Amino acid sequence: MMLNIGISSGEILELFDEIKGPLTEKEIEVQLKASRESILMSLGWLIREGFITTECVGKITFFKCINSEKKQRGKYFKNDEHSYI
Q1: How many domains, the chain?
Q2: Across the strands, what pairs with 24?
Q3: In angstroms, rounded to a whole number, what is the distance separating the alpha carbons of residues 23 and 57?
Q4: Is residue 37 domain-resident?
Q5: pLDDT higher than 90, residue 68
Q6: Is residue 59 part of a domain?
Q7: Residue 63: which region, alpha, beta or left (left: phi > 0; alpha: psi -120 to 50)?
Q8: How deeply is 53 buried, as exposed, middle or buried, from its count of CB atoms within 10 A (0-12, 13-18, 19+)?
Q9: Which residues, other chains included, contact 32 with Cβ-Cβ below 8 Å and sequence gap of 6+?
Q10: To 10 degrees, what angle do helices 2-19 and 25-32 make?
Q11: Which residues, in sequence order, are CB contacts of 22 under 8 Å at separation 6+?
């Protein structure tokens, strides 16, 4: 499960790079063709780590990438046992 969250998180960040704007949970699900559970866990991790933020407009929650410098540093970090996205 943890590997899936990491993979989905990387795909979400790549999607933000392509779209260059805020996205809803549903838009992310449709673009990535991933399960709602996986998307929500990945979004939670990305929020906690400071990669994205949320904004509510009415009943709709938008997610927005806010930390591209941190994202780029993490993208190329590797150690002997694991590779990180």
Answers
A1: 1
A2: 62
A3: 12
A4: yes
A5: no
A6: yes
A7: beta
A8: middle
A9: 8, 11, 12, 15, 39
A10: 100
A11: 55, 62, 63, 64
